[in-house]
Structures are given as structure tokens and as C-alpha cells.
Prior knowledge:
Layout: H1 3-7, E1 23-33, E2 36-48, E3 54-63, E4 69-78, E5 85-91, E6 95-104, E7 107-117, E8 124-134, E9 137-146, E10 152-161
Amino acid sequence: MSRSTVDSPVLHGDVAHLGFLLGLWRGEGEGVYPTIAPFHYGEELVVGHVGKPFLSWVQRTWSLDDGRALHAETGYLRSPPGGPVELVLSHPTGVVELSEGECHDGTVTLTSRLVGCTTSAKPVRALSRVIAVEGDVLRYRLSMAAVGRDETDHLTATLRRADGGHP
């Protein structure tokens, strides 16, 4: 196998319709929740692929006030033929998220089917996400049901493609 084949694998057909998410995205967002003070954050999201039927998802956020790390997520987006879009994520807070949904016209809508928490994690019952890409701008909204509260808006952000264009 030549080096160029290793460096640029062909996007697997099962996830080709999610190809608009590929790339390095950076921007800012804001968080709110009934149990915390509102906050602003910086964010970086890297969505990649290796030619297999999944996209990799690596996200990190930091405080805009002092640069300290706030959150991170690592996992995969899948879309089996005839099935839903699936998001499988691990959070360093002791939470794992299995969400499913659909993709239409540059928008991915996901709702958790399962949220698992370690004994020491804050109790999270549900998560939902709407991720929309228009050109080189990615916007998302995340809602959460946690710590005894019903599902409510938690995060919104606007990220811009930071890797020079669509891969």
C-alpha cells in the first residue's frame, strides 16, 4: 500500500452522507443550566475517518476566562445501512452516551437511547443534540436531563472550519 493511500483513505459509503462533518472545527459557545452559573467556553472538534464505516469524534472545551480545561468527549459516529445515525461517546466525567437519530440537509439530530454513569458521576438521564453545518460554519445545541432536572437547554456553540476547507 502506498503512503498516499494511507494518508487519504476513501470515505466509507456508510458514512458518506455525514462527510460534511469531517474536519477541524474551532469556535466558542455558552452554557446554561438551572444548577450552575452561565459560562462561555472555547471549543475544538475534530471529526475524522480512516476509511471504515465510522467517523471519529474528538472534542475539547476550555474556559475563555483563564484557559482551564472544561470538558472533552471521544467517540464515533456510525450509520449502518438502513439504520439511524449513531453517536457513541465517552465523557471523562464518568458518563457514556449512546445516541441515535437522523441526518437531513446538513443537520444531524440525535437523542440518547442510553446514558450510563459511573458511581462517582453526576446523574445524567438524557442528552439530545442538533448539529447543523452550513458551508464552513457548524452550529449545535445540546440539551440535558441531569441532577434531578428535566431535559433543558445546556450548550450552544458556533464553530468554524479551521482546516482550510472541506476535506
